[in-house]
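Before the break, one more example. Copy the sequence into your notebook; we will annotate it together after we see the structure.
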Amino acid sequence: MSITQGTIFENLEQIRKTVIQACKNSHRDPQEIRIVAISKGFDSKVIREACNAGITDIGENYIQEALVKQDALSQLPIHWHFTGHLQRNKIPLIVQRFELIHSVDSMRLAESLSAHSLKTGESVTALIQLKTSANIAHGFSIEEIRETAQSLSQLEGLKPKGIMTMAPASQDHEAVRASFRAATEIFHVLKRNFGSEFQHLSMGMSDDYDIAVEEGATMLRLGRAIFGERRGR
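Here is what the structure looks like once it is written out:
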C-alpha cells in the first residue's frame, strides 16, 4: 500500500476511507474497526494532535518513553496499549500504566502475568501474540497455541482478550493475506476456549492494514500512516 503523507488529520481521513472501502469489499461494518496509533518516537504534542483528530487509542513500545507522554497527556481520555516486546521485570509498571498488553508471546510470560495478578489483585488484560511465519521473532507458533490454549485459559488473573499478529515483511500481498487469514482462523478456534470476551484481532500495520481489514482485523496498529516517518528510534 502506498502512503501519501499530509497532516495528521488528512492522514486519518485517508485511513478511514481506506477502511470503509476494505469493509465494503469484505461485507463488514467499519464500526468494528479500532485504530491504535503507534506513537513511539513521537512526542506528546504530536499525540495530542492525533487525539484532536479523533484518536482515542495510543500504542507505545518503550516503557520509559511512554511514561513521559502519559504524564504529559494525563488529562486526555486516552486508552493506552503496550505494543512492544514485554520483559518480565517490567510487568508491574506496565500493568499499572496500560489498559491492554498486545504482546503475550510465551507461556512463561503468561504465567508471570498471572502470578503478578494473584499477588497484587490487579487484573491483567492482554492479547496473545501469534506468529504465522518463521521470520517473525516473537510469539506462539500456530502449533504451540493450539497445544497451550487450554492452559492459557485456566491462568487466574490473566484475561486474554484476543490475538495480535504481524504479517511477514513481504511485497507479496497474497503471502500477507495468507498470514492474516491463518490468524483469523486461530482466533475463532481460541474464542471457543476463552469465551465472548475474546474479541480483539490486532493485525494490520501501515503497509497492509487494508488487507488485514478484509481478513477480519478488529484493531489496526498504525504509526507511519498517521504520523509520517518516525523521528528517533
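The radius of gyration is 17 Å. The first strand starts at residue 34 and ends at 38. Try to locate both features in your own notes.
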